[in-house]
Amino acid sequence: LSKGFRGGCCPERSSKFSFMWLSLCLSTPQQLVGVVGLEIHAQINSSTKLFSGSSVRFSAPPNSLVSFFDASLPGTLPVLNRRCVEAAVMTGLALNCNINRKSLFDRKHYFYADLPAGYQITQQRQPVAVDGTLTYSLLEGKKRSQVIRKNVHIKQIQLEQDSGKSLHDDVHSQTLIDLNRAGVGLMELVMEPDMSCGEEAAAAVRELQLILQALGTCQGNMSEGQLRVDANVSVHRPGEPLGVRTEVKNINSVRYLARAIDYEIQRQIGILQRGGTVQNETRAYDSKSGFMPEPNLPPLIVYEDNASLPAGIDACQAVVVQKIKEGLPELPSIKRDRLVQTYGILPEHSFTLVNEDGLVEYFEAVLMATKKEPRKVIGWVTNELLGHLKQQDLSVSQSPISPPALAELLELQETGHISSSVAKQVFQKMWRSPGKTAAQITQEHDLGLVSDTAQLHSICQKVVDSHPDEVHAIRNGNKKVLNKLMGLVQKETKGRADPVLVRKILQEKTS
Amino acid sequence: MLGLFFLGVSLALREGRISPTELCKKCLNRIKKTQHLNAYITVTEESALKQAQQSEVRLLKGVPKGPLDGIPFAVKDNFCTKNIKTTCASKMLKDYTPPYNATVVQKLLDQGAVLMGKANLDEFAMGAGCTDGAFGPVKNPWSYAAPYREQTGAMLESDWAITGGSSGGSAAAVASLTSYLALGSDTGGSTRNPGALCGVVALKPTYGLLSRHGLIPLVNSMDVPGIMARSVNDAAIVLGILQGLDVRDSTTVPAPSPLTELPQDFDVKNICVGIPKEYHAPGLSEETLAQWSRVADLFERAGAQVKQVSLPHTQYSIVCYHVLCHAEVASNMARFDGLEYGHRSQIDSSTEVMYASTRHEGFNDVVRGRILSGNYFLLKQNYQHYFVKAQKVRRLIADDFRNVFGSGVDVLLTPTTLSDAACYQDFTQEDNRTRSAQEDVFTQPANMAGLPAVSVPTALSRRGLPIGLQLIGPALHDKKLLSVAQWIEQRVGFPSISDWDYSRESRNDTAVTKREQTSAV
Questions:
Q1: Using CB atoms within 10 A as the burial measure, which of A46, A70, B15, B89 is most buried?
Q2: How do residues A354-411 score in pLDDT, each as one tens digit?
Q3: Does residue B76 have an active-site annotation?
Q4: B interface mutation test: which of A1, A68, A70, A73 has the most B CBs within 10 A?
Q5: B205 and B191 in contact (C-beta within 8 Å)?
Q6: How many Cβ atoms are within 10 Å of A306's Cβ, its own excluded?
Q7: Is B190 a catalytic residue?
Q8: Model's pTM, two decimal places?
Q9: Residue B166, preceding bond cis, omega within 30 degrees?
Q10: Does ipTM exceed 0.90?
């Protein structure tokens, strides 16, 4: 709740900022460099709140998801939601954390209209998970094909309550409160200041987002506030103590996060270079606010395995680390390695696949239905399909072309029924008329490969006759000019001519 | 009939000697007659009659819900009651009506007990006199009975004695025979203190045995719903009904055993009674000391082992109790900001100004003072020095008890209060803080350690006011504690207020009470 620097840069300045990323991430010993730590609040994907039975739902009518406890009615008590604990433990395991067998809840006090009890229940002294690592990758180089792995240390993951929302009506000088969000379970992840620029922070957050989504512990949608990132930014010369920190808060996309952090780093460097000092803008009030153990919740105990459960404790009611470990899904980094190894695709393609929700599944579904090599399918998925989706702001699941439909198209090309350029035309037409198969479109538009030798002979003859200079050049040994003639034949046939056949005929006619 | 233990009434109800409606009306009449005591903040006449009627139907059909069916009871006004105002004796909540019942209230209603009303208290249960509530002080029923009036020569209306607190209304309700039992809350002695001063049995069960869901908290880590009754056995039956795990309160524990009636012939021969020397405190009245010795002698003569023991950290307890109490108060009171419920100030030029004026207008000086000091203790720079230190001492105090009980002591026998009830005029010469420190001195260590404790009335003082003694037992040994308490009760012959009060009207009832007491001995 501290009032830090508010991020959010103008999108039109993006080119300038992307230039800056390069310079910020590289440093020489005497240069001022950025130091970035992150505090991330991830809303737990659970059907009910952390300490009450009210439902969790985005954009429900105001104050429709509020229990007596959420409204802090006197005499109500918190009852911990096991699902939220399991989500935090699972997230902790995925981030290589130590899971505390015993963790504690605390109250953090502040007067805030959307915090009805006057305190937040959190885990300040002994959080559920500590001391983990997040490994993320940066894609560098001209074609962003160089994968650089980096680590950021996770200090802790703590369970805590979300606050409600305040809406200020300045005209009527009123504040309206919506408590739907009050008491929703949050995981606060504290990442140590191991990052040096916006791009690194953005890559770390993106990787975390993918992990949380793979686990299902958080939906990770930043624009809906399911994932909220605060960055602590300072600058220093390597080897020297860290500089004064400021906070960049309320960023609602990974892209703006990178820009806001870099803007702040540049701002601080500018101040220091002009001989000024960076002001810490965190409110002093915050640091004095009192903590107290939450007396209504006994210590949270998680058990290593079923064997360590004390007598009388029902295994279904307890949180058992081993059980959660066994249920961990494939994490993004493992998935990328598997894709590279199994299909022989490039690492950067594995990033593209994993980055897009559902794209791996799409890719694999296409492979199931075609004999085409994965290395040849990948371009269709990451360029044609993804390009079209992005253009229309669609998700993979909304694609008008299903994996079997794409596979059928690729199969037509693979078996020589259509050329690769026609295949792209058919793809476009399929996109526009969902439900029609590649074969139907090929037939309707007469796009099938022309392999009638007589017909091709006649077209080739026409091209040869009308381009005597080119024919001359070829006969003089400049074989490359043959490609020009081939292009002309394809133009005549709207790309439908069987290229192997055309080449053979043209070679005959120009020899 | 009104002077009976509820078990006696329960039998009368089932045998048809009186109907629940008649009983309810008798109690309502008596509430009107004793209105000057100010025991109730809200009398729920209409719903009580309705509940009594429903009970009557069940009894006529021969299917009562249990021994409590048709029995009138009162609830301290800091337990939430659905659709019935719950004020905490504070302006802050003077018009607050909760949408749900506290678990312990619900359990009594489920047994068919009839809720007569909400009992008066110190504001938010902060006090030891029941003199600091927004609806005025509660008067000790015994200060209107013949012994006090005759002994002290009290003539003036202003000569009345306090009930003790903070559950003074609940104690007065049971003592003045308007309810057969009452719920109090006990954070530092708030049930036992007025229980002792009003001559009723007052049980503070083991922390966690009774649900706090719906009890508006004072100190969450020490609050326990308390049971006030006319006899130890009555208290035991209510404990049996109220105890056990509640999913709405994560600090509850399963009941160690189902508790019904107590054995009538408990043998104390194998009991070891500890007399903690630290409770021989300055200010302990000669008469209370005499009662303490008398009961210790009773035990000794009956063959129990009685030995002096030491609880060396007792002297630090009250100070630490106040640090922890004020810190939790500061935290618990933060929710009263006028936004969601309760009083909201008209002064609302900004949210902050509205908070400040709401809280200034809504809370009395005592509550505001505790919030202020509590916030001081919770400041980052003070937290280690006060709160953490007080918690460490709390552990030492709990260890003291553990050591004593580990050395073979079964129960500790102590005074409940320093003396009998003070006259209101005298009591209010000192402020709430001073009085709380004096009055809770013997009672709050049991809260610090989470142990069960019960106050049993033993005699009337020379002034004609009750004196009680306290028994403290190991955690979850509530039943044994009550068995020992009943043993005392059976031998001390504490009189019923109905022996003097309204004697013309209830002569027959009195005879029944005396007969029961005699046969019990």
A1: B89
A2: 999 899 999 999 999 999 999 999 999 999 999 999 999 999 999 999 999 999 999 9
A3: yes
A4: A73
A5: no
A6: 11
A7: yes
A8: 0.88
A9: yes
A10: yes
